[in-house]
From TrEMBL:
InterPro entries: UCP033563
One of the Pfam families matching this protein, by short name: DUF1015
Highest classification ranks of the organism: Bacteria, Bacillati, Actinomycetota, Actinomycetes, Streptosporangiales
PANTHER family: DUF1015 DOMAIN-CONTAINING PROTEIN, LMO2823 PROTEIN
Protein name: DUF1015 domain-containing protein
Organism: Actinoallomurus iriomotensis
Length: 419
């Protein structure tokens, strides 16, 4: 098998997918979930209670990853999970109110860290990589796809093929609790596989979601000698020119930092304004800001808007060699100036918690932890693409591209994907 790191561009290969047998579960909606890092403790309990075969029992096992591996084996033996008869690429559609995205799920050729084929745009941390590596090693599986974007320039052969396939009856269809419909089609024709391979070969892709999982693919490949299934990882590839992504905000919660203290310390570099308790009004004010801005809230009833950071302090806080565009990112100012310099807090996973999209949930979590919620505007897609193209990475958890693929619709195991 060729060394995928020497290939000139993207490689998305057909494979024999592992999928739920609809006759063995209550519904596909009941056994699938969002990506693992979007599931909080409350949601995990709900998924565990809803259906005994929910995918969270594999991606977030409650004991150890040996249990996840045993559960996967037993579900395969019992026929809860089945293996498709033929290798395929899978056209995948997500559709709902204001949502339509189509892409292609396949086995992604893994490239080395220096490759310019698959571009990360966020930094990664060792802890999540160790966690996912332990899971993938124990289960010998990729249990959920990462999410990649490429620019098909409005007319890629791959996106045209996906749209053509989507006009036929799907292999499966389900609607989830967020009112999004998910449909899947298997593409088994080797001639179509060859056409897609030729179209993708010279292209680059941006990691939209799954930086730690892609880094885990790389670590898994390094840990195994010789060619094998670890040279590939499960991925959804979407043409961003045909289906522009939505970019949402990721908020922060700083436990044990009272809002009054957070505001007082922030005044050393920011203009602060007390807004009152109405979240919707405060979010409108935040969204209306042209420059760097943050919304703070917690136990106190009032919300506070931070704007107009002192540019001298911003400049002094930034690492050498970063571009003006990188230094202007809200998350760069947050992680280089506000959290470490003004609040004197170590910026790590223990001290800075993450909440995707939902500002109200971030505020509730801040109140439970006697802390401060930092509500952010989403970054601009153009800024993220430009930073990645320049070889830089935005600070951790700066972006939340969507819609993300549903976990559990398509799995890939090493033992069933022998090449």
């Amino acid at each position: 098998m060729p060394d995928v790191t020497t290939q000139p561009g993207l490689s998305l290969e057909p494979f024999r997918a592992v999928r739920y047998a609809s006759s063995k579960v209550s519904s596909l909606a009941a056994v699938t979930s969002p990506p693992y890092d979007l599931i909080d403790e409350e949601a995990l309990k709900r998924f565990m209670a809803d259906e005994p075969h929910n995918i969270v029992r594999l991606i977030l096992p409650q004991q150890d990853y040996g249990d996840a591996a045993e559960t996967l084996r037993s579900w395969l033996a019992e026929g809860v999970l089945t293996v498709d008869a033929e290798p395929a690429l899978y056209a995948y559609e997500e559709a709902g109110e204001g949502v339509l995205q189509r892409g292609l799920i396949g086995a992604l050729g893994v490239h080395g860290p220096g490759s310019q084929v698959i571009l990360p745009h966020e930094d990664v941390y060792p802890g999540p990589i160790r966690d996912r590596l332990a899971l993938m090693t124990a289960t010998r599986a990729n249990l959920e796809p990462i999410f990649l974007l490429y620019d098909g320039e409005g007319a890629s052969a791959t996106s045209r093929l996906v749209d053509e396939v989507a006009s036929s009856p799907p292999l499966l269809e389900t609607s989830t609790g967020d009112d999004v419909r998910h449909r899947l089609w298997a593409i088994t024709d080797p001639a179509v596989h060859a056409s897609i391979a030729a179209d993708l070969r010279e292209r680059q892709a941006l990691i939209a979601d799954g930086h730690h999982r892609y880094a885990t693919y790389q670590a898994l490949r390094e840990a195994n000698e010789g060619p094998g299934p670890w040279d590939y990882g499960l991925a959804l590839l979407v043409d961003s020119s045909a289906y522009p992504p939505h970019l949402g905000a990721i908020h922060r919660v700083i436990p044990n930092l009272a809002v009054s203290d957070a505001v007082r310390l922030a005044k050393a570099a920011f203009r602060t304004e007390q807004l009152g308790p109405d979240l919707s009004t405060a979010l409108e004010r935040l969204a209306a800001q042209d420059g760097t801005a943050f919304l703070l809230g917690g136990e106190e009833d009032d919300l506070f808007l931070l704007t107009d950071p002192d540019q001298a302090q911003v400049t002094n806080s930034m690492p050498d060699g970063t571009s003006p565009r990188w230094r202007g990112l809200d998350t760069a100012v947050l992680h280089r100036l506000l959290i470490p310099e003004l609040w004197h807090i170590t910026d790590d996973e223990a001290n800075v918690h993450i909440v995707h999209h939902d500002a109200e949930r971030a505020l509730r979590k801040a109140r439970r932890t006697n802390g401060t919620a930092v509500i952010l505007n989403p970054l601009q897609v153009a800024d993220v693409l430009a930073v990645a193209a320049g070889g830089e990475k935005v600070p951790r958890k700066s972006t939340s591209f969507g819609p993300k693929p549903r976990t559990g619709l398509v799995l890939r195991t090493f033992d069933t994907d022998r090449r």
